[in-house]
Amino acid sequence: MDVRVICATQKNLTELVQRGEFREDLYYRLNVLTITIPPLRERPQDIMPLTELFVARFADEQGVARPKLANDLSSFLCKYGWPGNVRQLKNAIYRALTQTDGYELRPQDIILPDFEVEIALGDEVMEGSLDDISKRFERSVLTRLYRTYPSTRKLAKRLGVSHTAIANKLREYGLSNRKLTDDSEE
């Protein structure tokens, strides 16, 4: 009998063997060929091909027309960190397609957890004073949430602040739904 076993793990098996938490003999039996696939956040070039695959697959399964992908969808999806990797992307696309009523898949159709921010905290984000960094972060949060909560009252309720405070912040950062729509069309 010829048997091949394919295993996948997110654990560091070498470390587990050293700590005695994984059998060393089993490790060497299984560790014939190691393929390391980086997380999706490290492979932004794969996000849109995967998105297109999931859209096509879901549309075919449901017997519906494939929606067009909005021009700004790629930049929106690539800015997200995808802690759940490909499975999270697939689920987000499926959820969006079941709930959209249009012929175009747009960033505002994709629901992502609020604890993630559309910017990655790289070195360029950390430049400047604490006030500068805080303002960039605040602007990013407002930009992202204002697409989902398009009225100042809804956004204020979502963030737990007064309508006046939100209106002042949007004015301070030069944000409005019209501007966000214009920016996404470029």
Describe this structure in words.
There is one protein chain. With 186 residues, this protein is mainly α. It folds into three domains: 1-36, no CATH class; 40-109, Helicase, Ruva Protein, domain 3 (Orthogonal Bundle); 123-185, Arc Repressor Mutant, subunit A (Orthogonal Bundle), CATH 1.10.10.60. Helix content is 52%, strand content 2%. It contains nine helices and two strands. It has helices at 13-18, 24-30, 47-62, 73-79, 85-99, 130-148, 152-159, 163-172, 177-185; strands spanning 68-69, 104-105. The protein has a two-stranded parallel ribbon. Helix 3 (47-62) crosses helix 5 (85-99) and helix 7 crosses helix 8 (163-172). The protein starts with 12 loop residues before the first helix and ends with a helix.
Give a quick rundown of the structure:
The protein has 186 residues and is mainly α. Helices cover 52% and strands 2% of the residues.
